[in-house]
Amino acid sequence: MGKVIGELSISVDGYSAGLDQTEERPFGTDGGDGWGSRLHAWMFDTPEENRAERDQFAAAGAYVMGRNMFGPVRGGWDRPWNGWWGDDPPFHAPVFVLTHHAREPQPMEGGTTYHFVTDGIESALAQAREAAGDGDVTLAGGASTINQYLAAGLVDELRLHVVPFTLGAGTRLFEGVPSLRLEQVKSRAASLVTHLTYRVLT
Questions:
Q1: The CATH homologous superfamily of the domain defined by 4-201
Q2: Residue 30 pLDDT level (bands cut at 50, 70, 90)
Q3: Which of 72, 93, 97, 131 lies 20 to 30 Å (CA to CA) from residue 5?
Q4: Is-contact 24 36, C-beta < 8 A?
């Protein structure tokens, strides 16, 4: 069985999204422009420098994400859309979306299929584990979703991409999570980000 990995880009003060999230600014106001903004500039502006981390994220056997990481409700779920990620999302694997709104699975180009899970984090993880087989399951965010899994003791590893600026407000990793013991596995500094990997100890 593979690992359960929480993976997230965060500001130095621990925020994965700023305030005032909109369809045009899915990660809120963080001083940048466009979809990726400052929190994710390392992925788009310096992709080759961060190829190892991008490839590692793409290697998961399945993913779990919160509904807001999938995308906002546009016109109600009776007229659903296909999320932030476009017609060919970067996952290329099953993605299990935590939501309170039931919806049929949504296949996309490139091998991604979104499955909408209404019965909680344990159910989503169980389905993702089954889909991943011996592969890893990546918790792709946002911070609120990863916090739930951390609080439940269901995360084996954290991969954090720390971007050198502060947000001061927004959605914060570790909010409401009891004290954790972490073992640093590796770290690597790049021009726009520092990549940190921790094992979550029981």
A1: Dihydrofolate Reductase, subunit A (3.40.430.10)
A2: low
A3: 72
A4: no
